[in-house]
Amino acid sequence: MISFNIPPYVGTEQTYIAEAVASHKICGDGQFTKKCNAWMEEKFHAKKVLLTTSGSTALDMAALMCGIHPGDEVILPSYTFSSTANSFVLAGARLVFVDIRPDTMNIDETKIEAAITDKTRVIVVVHYAGVACEMDTIMDIAQRHNLMVVEDAAQGVMSTYKGKYLGTIGDFGCYSFHETKNYSMGEGGAIVVNNPDYIEKAEILREKGTNRAKFFRGQVDKYTWVDFGDSYLPSELNAAYLWAQLEKADEINENRLATWNTYYQALKPLADAGKIELPTVPDGCVHNAHMFYIKCKDLEERTAFIQYMKEHDILCVFHYVPLHSATAGLKFGRFDGVDEYTTKESDRLVRLPMYYGFKQDDLQRVINNAVSFYKE
What we know:
The chain is α/β, with parallel strands linked by helices. Helix content is 39%, strand content 14%.
């Protein structure tokens, strides 16, 4: 069976984990955590990056730092993972879902302004498949309406929009290093703090409400509980695993892009013949080959395609069920405007196997079977 995903592994992970164990420092904020934070700050030109226990807890931190009060509204796409919504529900917000663009599956920037009310506080963007949302327009809307912007860049590590790395454009950016992502630490994530006014607040929130970070920098002679906080520090063992991959970040990125480009070129004749649709990457966006998807004609054809591939020992999977149609979505939010594309497009999308080190023979097998399905 060709797996849909195999977590990335470069070969030095176990060496670094052993180093962490030998150092007798396996809780958070050891040498590997610091290396990962510093690497991302330098690579992405970010003001502050802090590793977290997951992409979800990075979003939790962002939502809490947005200063949401019960009844405040947050605008977001319905086509996303539950974590995007849960974090803002946790902070007390009502969710306002808007439609997506059918070309990128990202939030439709032209639908945001109509959804703004006097209760709106935050716009949450999700960079689907590592392809950027139309950030210039979104940041302009946010500025004019005095709103904060949170980038759910869980899938967008290493991607850029007009030369800026995803996660560094809004007030806060959130990355995921889950085993399904391009770079992994098993479970883990990071928050990018782009407004310097929030750096100290982020450190306190992440460190159980204490000013421990200031203490370790020698800025205070003892640390104490200064505000609400929680424990968002990942284990040093997880950070050691991630560090091995960040050292090879460009190599992993290039390998995935090569697979993505092979898929695109091989399946383009099917798209040209009107059988399928392929992903769109707008001008000014550089993606990270987080996933490769095709769009079938409809739900029925997608179901048949997934079944056909499974019968040929290839695991292909669909993606999100729109949140606004889910039980919790109905409970915690509402859809603004018309669901023209969210449900229709989500019913058609299917993801093909995609991971670092994907063997050429296996890749060709996936392509051949996809082509065969449409021939038959």
